[in-house]
TrEMBL record:
InterPro entries: FAM210A/B-like, FAM210A/B-like_dom. Keywords: Membrane, Transmembrane, Transmembrane helix. This is DUF1279 domain-containing protein. Residues 13-94 form the DUF1279 domain. It comes from Tribonema minus. The chain crosses the membrane at residues 21-41, 61-80. GO terms for cellular component: mitochondrion. The keyword Nuclease does not apply.
Length: 128
C-alpha cells in the first residue's frame, strides 16, 4: 500500500512541476504511436493475431478490411504500448520543459516592460 501511495505522490509532484508540458509530450507520443501503428497496419503488418488474444477486442472489427478495422487494430496495439509511452513521457518531459523555458516561452519585450513600469509609477488623476 505504501509503494502505491509513493508512486501516486511522485506522479502528482511530476504533474505539478511540469503541468501542461507533460500533457503535450504525452499527447504527442500517443498520436505518433497511433499514427505509426495505423500506417504499419495499413501497409500490411499483421497484428490481428496478436490482438485477437485480447478478450476486450471485438473480433468482427479485427477481421474487417476497411479503414475502421485498421484503426481498431492500431488503437489496440497503441493501448498495449501504454507502459512504454509512460516511460517515454517521464523521460522526455524534463528536456521538453527545459527547451520550452529556455527557447520558446514568450518573454516581454524590454521596452514593453519599461513602459509598464513607467505607467505603474505615474500618479493617478483625481476627480475623473
Amino acid at each position: 500500500m505504501s509503494s502505491n501511495r509513493l508512486s501516486h505522490e511522485n506522479l502528482l509532484r511530476f504533474a505539478r512541476k511540469y503541468g501542461p508540458v507533460a500533457g503535450v509530450v504525452h499527447s504527442s507520443v500517443y498520436v505518433c504511436t497511433l499514427g505509426s501503428m495505423y500506417t504499419a497496419i495499413a501497409s500490411g503488418l499483421d497484428l490481428t493475431s496478436l490482438l485477437a488474444q485480447i478478450p476486450l477486442m471485438d473480433q468482427d472489427l479485427l477481421t474487417a478490411n476497411a479503414a475502421a478495422g485498421h484503426l481498431a487494430v492500431a488503437y489496440g496495439a497503441t493501448m498495449l504500448t501504454g507502459p512504454m509511452r509512460a516511460v517515454v513521457t517521464i523521460t522526455a518531459t524534463p528536456a521538453a520543459a527545459d527547451v520550452w523555458n529556455t527557447h520558446i516561452k514568450p518573454r516581454p519585450a524590454p521596452l514593453g516592460g519599461r513602459l509598464l513600469q513607467i505607467r505603474q509609477r505615474a500618479p493617478k488623476a483625481r476627480g475623473a
